[in-house]
Amino acid sequence: MPGSRGDLGVEVFRELSTEVWRGLRVLFSKPLSIMINIITAPLWLAFFILTLRGFGVLTLGRFILQLFLWAAYAFALYSSWLWGFGGGIIEEGYEGILESVMSTVNNVFIHIIGWGIAYSIYTLLDLAALVLSFYVVFGITIEVRDPLLFAVSVILASLQLLLISTIYAMLVIRLRSNWVITDIMQFLMPALGGLIPSEASRYVMMINEYSPIAYPFVIMREAALGYPELPIPITYQVLYSVITVVSLLIATAILVRIFDKRLRREGKLGLT
């Protein structure tokens, strides 16, 4: 029995590695498209900030610029994960790719996690593009006050978004109601997800303080800028984030298991 468990672990690792490599090859198969997508968002952000400054609405101090950068990175992560990664799973469901995955991996969850790891690597390009664009346009070098905490926040945010995106995709596929669920996500995620800095208003601060999915992005700004955004110790914020990620992991695993059983029983999702 111990040997069989070891063999199973090796098999799972092999399948996971294959899915990660496959995901990276697909994601980086169109370099021109990648460059356009990565460059466009920072340029629009720079244009928006410069326009506000031109009308005298905004004074561009170093702190304000960095606050804009980390807010933009949060929006970029949400956009990439929900509409890129989550949308990709939905397309796989409708195009029959998830059915074919069954012949190469033991569990659909392995496929999703493998692609999620590949996508996490891909999203680092968004951060690099934002940092570079702010240096070129505004002449500032971005400093992260607490690199370790910042890395923890990025990992927590990526895990959380991977799981939320998977739940979103599974619900769209299962309920066959793309626009309803998408509209709900477009409203809830920016409002409850910690994308907007607490400095915006006391209502935003209240939402960021009580929304369990907001903490990774609040921690990200706190680690980067070196100031407490919420009246909650960092240790508790990290703890609440971990609890949220574990809860989402359990919910996602259950949902994916249901889909996996249906695929194995029927051989299809019944979407076409």
Could you please describe the fold and organization of this structure?
The protein has 272 residues and is mostly helical. The chain has one domain (2-266). Helix content is 80%, strand content 0%.
Summarize the structure.
This protein is mainly α.
Rg value: 20 Å
- Would you list the SSEs in sequence order as H and E? HHHHHHHHHH
Count of individual domains: 1
Number of helices: 10
Structural class: mainly alpha
What would the principal axes of the Cα set say about the shape? globular
Unreliable runs: none
- What is the count of β-strands? 0
Helix content: over 70%
Strand fraction band? under 5%
CA-CA gap between termini = 42 Å
The whole-number mean of residue pLDDT values reads 81
